[in-house]
Inverse folding.
């Protein structure tokens, strides 16, 4: 076993962020020794408190430091005392854009023992990976407002999509699909209405698909996709979609796969020109912060994705298996606190 | 009882459109006499066949004729032999925009006896009305493409939102909310990312809300809304949202309320400067066309909405009750064909 040191940035953030991150790090610490990994950790004080203190969300100097890291673990940002969007855009989206996280990787998987709001579905029915584009679409912030506050106000938002951006995320999706047993890739879009962007996605799917004859492809409108997520989730294996549609369907995916407390994600820069960032899909949930009620599982599964990203696949599988076993056990023994869940999973992986 | 004649345009469309429209008209014919209504019907041959024959989707001359009608009943348009979007935009969206259907009214209601994919929810849990903006947002068609087909292609889509457009749909939503027992209105948007449009919606909600102190309001991000649709649908009573978000959440709403075969909608021009258009939410479903498998219930419920729009509330309630009774009966006797369902409901309302 070769030993290796990894520079890890930690952004606990707001609300339940610090609590769930603590458990994620606990599991990382537990799994690391036997994998020959050590982490050189730097914690970054970013989020609501800093904004209140200094007005900063993600200062350039901090961003420059983050670029020197190998990976980032983020808890959650956002707080009712900060105007909606300030931290989300100033910190989270800024990091995704500046660090070129063009793949937003979001598995949607029902683990054994987890209860889903859907009647009669089994773990075989819900097992997909959503590849959400992360650096363009309606998330660019392009747009504006004229005559604000008057009855003649016009507010626009622009979705910007480029061949460069669409091609690279679709190629990544084909790679993921090719590595999965079903080898099936569905493009989710709304090409009958968003014709320019939809057409670019469709043409690119076709072109890149020629290089992956082993992968079957399908297309599904986003509205129909939400319907199939609840009525026939087994339709989907790998999904590629734009930034906004991906945001929407992965929250829905989290809900059908047992809740937002379990949904992990990676903001991935596959070219490794900057660090990738792993985070639970859930938000900062200020209403339950500090009460030990937050489920750290999504963060722990994000740690597993982080491990995969740095090439520690064995450790990643161990964390996933530990989570899976813990979830099955939880179904039997009932609810536990944030720390108890972290402890239990850490114990399993350190064995 | 005053007798009244109503000019009704019928656009059967493609796929299962003509089949479900036939049943809708059957029910309309059955309920009309005892309500003192007669319909002066004109059928319009629009859809895939006409496009193949003439290249036309909704010619100006036909649009002018439609403007002279009082209401429109539409089945479904779209066909795999026609490029995606051609009929949807050229016919359906063109009608919505030209006839100023700024309210797209979509009830999401679980009827007794109908099975939902959600475990453990009752008819009390799913009973909402979604008011989707119908004439702006990302549906304007604004946008374009440069360097098409090259690796430098850029494709844009613009969401256009105006104070004029947002105010009128939000005002309508408050009116609907005020008339419902719970009097609760939720704005669904994504204001932390689509800041210009989201801010316009938020400010308008607040302003117009001052005139409706009896209505409580809430805000929910669209991604979270999809989650709540499956995990806590009882959160919602009346929803107001933009054109694209409304498209997405009402398909999901249809799925949780028992399927797309039951979801009705109205494209409403509340100012009555042009005819409103009623249609099932579902598409043309070419795969099951002509087999008597299509469920005409969504069209029949759209006919009930049409009756409400023309002021025939009693007739509307009778159709709704008949549908509700029929659905409860269907749960007992099992599946029936398109015609059988239409016959059964027609029989109930003609009594
Ligand atoms: C917080 C918000 C900006 C973010 C997004 O919209 O991407 C979140 O919903 C997510 O999915 O990670
Ligand atoms: C057919 C399509 C253009 C349409 C829409 O997106 O509005 C449909 O999905 C609907 O919801 O009525």
């Amino acid at each position: 076993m070769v030993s290796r040191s990894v520079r890890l940035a930690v952004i606990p953030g707001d609300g339940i962020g610090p609590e769930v991150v603590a458990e994620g790090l606990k599991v990382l610490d537990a799994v690391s020794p036997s994998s020959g990994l050590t982490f050189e950790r730097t914690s970054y004080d970013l989020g609501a408190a800093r904004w209140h203190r200094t007005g900063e969300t993600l200062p350039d100097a901090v961003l420059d430091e983050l670029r020197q890291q190998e990976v980032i673990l983020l808890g959650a940002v956002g707080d009712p005392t900060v105007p909606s969007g300030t931290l989300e855009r100033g910190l989270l989206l800024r990091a995704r854009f500046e660090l070129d996280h063009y793949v937003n990787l979001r598995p949607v998987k029902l683990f054994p023992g987890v209860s889903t709001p859907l009647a009669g579905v089994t773990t075989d029915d819900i097992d997909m990976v959503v590849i959400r584009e992360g650096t363009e679409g309606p998330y660019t912030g392009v747009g504006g407002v004229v005559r604000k506050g008057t009855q003649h106000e016009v507010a626009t938002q622009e979705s910007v999509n480029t061949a460069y951006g669409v091609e690279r995320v679709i190629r990544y999706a084909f790679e993921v699909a090719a590595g999965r047993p079903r080898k099936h890739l569905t493009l989710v879009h709304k090409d009958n209405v968003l014709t320019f962007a939809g057409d670019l996605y469709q043409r690119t799917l076709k072109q890149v698909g020629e290089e992956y004859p082993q992968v079957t492809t399908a297309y599904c409108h986003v509205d129909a996709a939400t319907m199939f997520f609840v009525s026939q989730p087994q339709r989907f294996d790998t999904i590629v979609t734009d930034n906004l549609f991906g945001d929407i369907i992965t929250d829905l995916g989290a809900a059908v796969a047992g809740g937002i407390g379990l949904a992990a994600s990676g903001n991935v820069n596959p070219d490794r020109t900057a660090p990738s960032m792993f985070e639970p899909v859930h938000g900062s949930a200020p209403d339950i912060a500090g009460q030990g009620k937050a489920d750290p599982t999504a963060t722990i599964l994000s740690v597993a994705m982080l491990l995969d990203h740095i090439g520690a696949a064995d450790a990643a599988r161990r964390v996933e298996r530990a989570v899976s076993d813990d979830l099955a056990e939880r179904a039997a023994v009932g609810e536990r606190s944030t720390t108890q869940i972290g402890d239990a999973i850490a114990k399993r992986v350190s064995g």
Chain A has a mean pLDDT of 96. Chain A touches chain B through 67 residues (CB under 8 Å). The two ends of chain A are 17 Å apart (CA to CA). Residues 185 and 217 of chain A are 5 Å apart (CA to CA).
